[in-house]
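Quick review question:
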């Protein structure tokens, strides 16, 4: 499972995931900084990746997409105040080991 990290995911999380062998696509690396949430959710889906975010707006966007019949590859939502960096890395790693890409489709996993 590939993980697309949006712009509010800290570089320490990105590097921690990569050290654990998780395939990470980062907005910081791709140059897509400043684009809309809808752009990022669509781009992650195009790249067959779940999106990792601290941004609760993605939860509303996923609900809207669901009502419109649009599909996404999944959202990993990590509340920025409730989940320390190391725990976020461990939780993402666990999700990539336990859930399949099919199970993540149109699914939101709260870390």
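Suggested answer, residue by residue:
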């Amino acid at each position: 499972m590939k993980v697309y990290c949006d712009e509010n995911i800290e570089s320490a999380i990105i590097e921690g995931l990569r050290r654990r062998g998780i395939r990470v696509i980062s907005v910081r690396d791709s140059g897509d900084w400043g684009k809309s949430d809808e752009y990022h959710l669509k781009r992650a889906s195009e790249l067959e990746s779940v999106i990792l975010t601290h941004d609760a707006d993605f939860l509303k966007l996923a609900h809207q997409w669901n009502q419109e019949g649009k599909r996404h590859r999944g959202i990993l939502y990590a509340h920025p105040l409730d989940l320390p960096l190391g725990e976020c890395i461990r939780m993402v790693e666990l999700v990539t080991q336990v859930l399949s890409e099919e199970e993540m489709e149109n699914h939101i996993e709260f870390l």
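Why it works: The longest helix spans residues 85-98. The chain has six helices and five strands.
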